[in-house]
Amino acid sequence: MLQTVKQFFDCFLNPGVDDAGTVSQQKVQMACAALLFELSAADQHRSEEEMTLLRSILRKTFNLDEQALAQLWDLAQREAKAATSLYQFTSLINDGFSYQQKTVLLEQLWMMAFADNRLDSHEEHLIRRIADLLHMTHGDFIRAKLAVKAANPTA
User: Which CATH number fits the domain that encloses residue 38?
Assistant: First the structure.
């Protein structure tokens, strides 16, 4: 049992690098998914719209088939529930993502926040914290919010 838990953490949470010195793509995917799960619960209500959008974001962003999506979904959900800090996820993203990729993630977080056609103050606060931990500027935060809001006028 302990060996299985250790293997899980080694595979998906330790910020290890591969032979080329880059952060494992699986770890970055799990970190992104976990942040999106965290955001979906920020307003104390996970809507069907949010869950549908979350699946779509993960599938398209990481080009996942149904089996890989299901595995990532389960892992990210467990990690989001067990997390004590956002830093464990954002540090992996900072090590594995370019500025442009982090900008896309920020927009995806806003898409999740607007998925139920209302913006909760807890969601906005969480996105602000994540943006700070990703070393994004306040301008990046606002630009992403406005871009998503412009693309979805009902939000």
Answer: 1.10.3680.10
Number of domains in the chain: 1
Q: pLDDT digit string (tens) for 41-66?
A: 887 877 888 889 999 999 999 999 99
Within a domain: 134: yes
Identify the residue whose tokens are 């992403």.
144
Model's pTM, two decimal places?
0.81
Q: Is residue 110 part of a domain?
A: yes
Distance CA 145, CA 147 (A): 6
**Alpha-carbon dihedral angle through residues 54, 134, 140, 113, given to the nearest 10 degrees:** 30
d(CA 3, CA 20): 27
Q: What is the pLDDT of residues 78-94, one digit of tens each?
A: 888 888 899 999 999 99
CB atoms within 10 A of CB 118: 12
The backbone region for 135, taken as left when phi is positive above 0, alpha when psi lies in -120 to 50, beta otherwise, is left
